From TrEMBL:
UniProt record, GO biological process: FtsZ-dependent cytokinesis
InterPro entries: ATPase_NBD (IPR043129), Cell_div_FtsA (IPR020823), FtsA/MreB (IPR050696), SHS2_FtsA (IPR003494)
Subunit note: Self-interacts. Interacts with FtsZ.
Gene name for this UniProt entry: ftsA
Pfam family, one: SHS2_FTSA
Organism of provenance: Candidatus Kerfeldbacteria bacterium RIFCSPHIGHO2_12_FULL_48_17
Protein's name in the database: Cell division protein FtsA
Keywords of this entry: Cell cycle, Cell division, Cell membrane, Membrane
Family: Belongs to the FtsA/MreB family.
Main localisation: membrane
Keyword Cell membrane: yes
Signal peptide extent: none
Free-text function comment from the UniProt entry: Cell division protein that is involved in the assembly of the Z ring. May serve as a membrane anchor for the Z ring.
């Protein structure tokens, strides 16, 4: 039974979220059911990076305990999200000769050419997290999605390499192993969220997924089913809360409540009239402020975030040119009128994305904030179903952190009594 359990852990700067899924045997095959979900405040983490190992381990352990009480199953291993401005991407190209004399391309050839694409000069102290093949070429025939079974002499691949800072990867793996859990894989958080939120059709048409966290905003652009561009910005919804706290001279907790109850990402005449009595939110407050003031603060920061994101779309010549538009997810996507603001700034269709196609009785999982945790579970489920197939490559789950995590695991186990 334990082999059928898949756990996804989303480590954020303000909240840690975990989702637990189970592969259930049905007449038409296996189905994924979410059987547990929990969240808790995070400490020791800033902008997606570990700043205190002791605090981070305590925070992760508390959330694991919550979900274990809910499911009755101990968390023994998990897929872990990794996010932060330190994560970068670059294009790569790999070329190999087809091994067999008859010229037929086999799985081994595809593996070799993807490995060849990994031999890029990565920046110092960086590790490769994912290799995402875009398309293959066989001799002079280009734009091939799956070359297995074709005949040729030379096999090439164009791929995107996603890499992270070695120190951050090691710190994160150390935190997880100190909780007593093993790591199935480290997954770039925005890719995991895309797994839960986006449809195959959206990825084919062209879509941008924007994951708005507390201190970072992740972007991934898909076109023809492939990842075209990724970026992590060091700014998020928590900065809006901070701005409101400074502007209204109030506490962070009151500012967060004001943001969600009275904030708006769009400044629209009549709708922003009125006063906000802070004493109704916190009896220790006595100020009464104009709602328009709050909306102007929120709108200014949203404009900054969306302008930076649109600059990224311009860098790959896709601003205003994605038929499936922009899908917003993450905790920051719950801000009132944010889709209207996105339509205005991106000049594209816009919607809020929540985890979809999940069998669950847990209401909290159908929340933009749980997109990454749910996506990690789906990522693991897809890998278990497709292991041994070419789909493994299209998921982009070629992780070079495996040797780091295995060494870490051995080291920690050697310390145990």
């Amino acid at each position: 039974m334990r082999e059928d359990i898949i756990t996804g852990l989303d480590i954020g700067s303000t909240n840690i979220r975990v989702a637990v899924g189970q592969m259930v045997q049905q007449t038409e095959g296996h189905r994924l059911q979410i059987i547990g979900a929990a969240e808790g405040p995070s400490e020791g983490i800033s902008k997606g990076s570990i700043v205190s190992i002791e605090d981070a381990v305590s925070s992760i352990s508390r959330v694991f305990e919550k979900v274990e009480r809910m499911t009755g199953i101990p968390v023994e291993h998990a897929y872990i999200s990794i996010l932060g401005p330190h994560i970068t991407s670059q294009d790569s190209h790999g070329v190999v000769a087809v091994a067999k004399a008859d010229g037929e391309i086999r799985e081994e050839d595809v593996e070799r050419v993807v490995e060849a694409a990994q031999t890029v000069s990565t920046p110092p102290n960086y590790e490769i997290l994912h290799v995402l093949p875009h398309h293959f070429s066989v001799d002079n025939q280009k734009n091939i999605k799956d070359p297995v079974g074709m005949t040729g002499i030379k096999l090439e691949v164009n791929a995107q390499i996603i890499q992270g800072l070695s120190a951050q990867i090691k710190n994160l793996t150390k935190c997880i192993y100190r909780t007593g859990a093993d790591i199935d894989d480290l997954v770039f958080g925005v890719l995991a969220a895309a797994q839960a939120v986006l449809t195959k059709r959206q990825k084919e048409l062209g879509v941008a997924l924007v994951n708005i966290g507390a201190t970072t905003t992740g972007l991934v652009v898909f076109e023809e089913g492939d990842v075209l561009h990724t970026k992590v910005l060091p700014i998020g919804a928590g900065h809006i809360t901070n701005d409101i706290a400074i502007g209204l001279r109030t506490s962070i907790d009151v500012a967060e409540a004001v943001k969600l109850q009275f904030g708006s990402a769009m400044h629209e005449g009549e709708s922003v009239k009125g006063q906000i009595d802070l004493s109704k939110i916190d009896e220790n407050e006595d100020a009464v402020i104009a709602r328009k003031t709050v909306v102007e603060i929120v709108e200014a920061r949203i404009e900054e975030i969306f302008t930076m994101l649109n600059k990224e779309l311009k860098s790959v010549k896709r601003d205003g040119l994605l038929p499936a538009g922009v899908v917003l997810t993450g905790g920051g996507a719950k801000l009132p009128d944010i889709t209207a603001a996105a339509k205005k700034y991106f000049r594209l269709p816009s919607s809020v994305g929540v985890p979809r196609d999940l069998e669950t009785a847990i209401d909290k999982i159908e929340d933009p904030a749980f997109s990454t945790a749910a996506g990690l579970v789906q990522w693991g489920a897809n890998l278990s179903q497709r292991s041994g197939h070419r789909g493994h490559f299209s998921l982009g789950n070629l992780s070079s952190v495996s040797h780091v995590t295995s060494k870490m695991q051995q080291w920690f186990k050697s310390l145990l009594p």
